[in-house]
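In full, the data:

***
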Amino acid sequence: MAEQARKESLFRVPNYPAWFGADTFLLTGSAVHWIVISLMAYELSGSVTMAGWFSTARGIMSVFTQVVGGAFVDRHDHRRLLLAQSGICGLLWLTMGMLYATGNLTFARFMVLCLSSSAVFGLLDGTSNAALITVVGPERYAQAESLNQGRDAAVRMAGSPLGATLYGLWSPAPFFASAACDIAAFFCSLTLKLPERPEVKQAERTISSFVHDLIEGWQWVFASKTIVNAVVIMGLFEFGAFAMRQAINLQMVSSGVDPLLISLVNVISGVATLVGSIVSSRVCDHVPVGRGVVAILAFMALGYVPLLFSSAYPSVVLSSILTSLPMPLFGALVNGFVFSKTPVDRQGRTRAAVMTAIMFFGSGSGALAGELLPRIGFTGFVIAMMALVLCSVLLAAINPRIRRIPASPEWGTVEL
């Protein structure tokens, strides 16, 4: 019977369609305006440097709010948080669109609205994933996650060109589209019925215990030397990789590349990611995590080589393909090991702690790109970031805790 239940469509599971609708609309709303935000930052400020600092400010805001986000989500009713997330974001993007349409959107107002969105993202972004396991149960959670990965890639591929197209037709349109998606997510959340969690009411009344739960989660993460080492290695890599993405976008924007062509880079990266996920699903159980991580990081560093010779659009496309292909396998190996070894009652806080630490490393990369590009040029910046990524490869290769992590069938024999 259990095997038969797993074969049945997830959309026959009560409440799953409502959850899937809310989560998909939230993701779509974010994807539609993602590419436009970078263009708007440059358009309103008129400065590559200011656009870079703007990206950094958003990253810092997400880091600070995500510090408490995991514990906050674990202690509150998920349906209410989904309603709050979709409702607040819908109002923010509706305000953005109205100000832009009436010619009253200054860079300061744009900054305030975007930072507010980043704060909501950091605090509540884990709500949907936390609610999913209560909807489908632990037995079908992996199946639901597999469906989500394909859905996420498809939405991101479609969202960027859609946002760029809407922006070309009427500049405020992407923000109104995002608001419409968030409003749709709000109504989907209204129909969502989740089982009561008696411990939530007690957690909400005991405010002082929040700090205790938060500190306990971070202490558990820092007590694991494997997690700490992995976060440092991933953080260095993420800093270099995110700075490269920012530099590529800024280079294309300042060079006058058509917004639709910029968005197509994301589409091509999404296709490469989908291909990589197919390969990953077939080999991830057989690849030793430690050696696999070293090889993947080295491959991704080499993926930036085409940019050493040219910043032209074909080089950007080729580099995006090379760096996107191995990402699903990298995530499957690292996240699979860390979170399969994490106790259920610490999943939310561990995920928040890990993601916050990695985001902390990457939060200054936008400002770095904005400051260094005018000074050392695009090629010089590529060389600097490649060196940083290669440092993460070296650290992974010489660290025995990382290098000796085996393939998934042997994870039970290894301590986290």
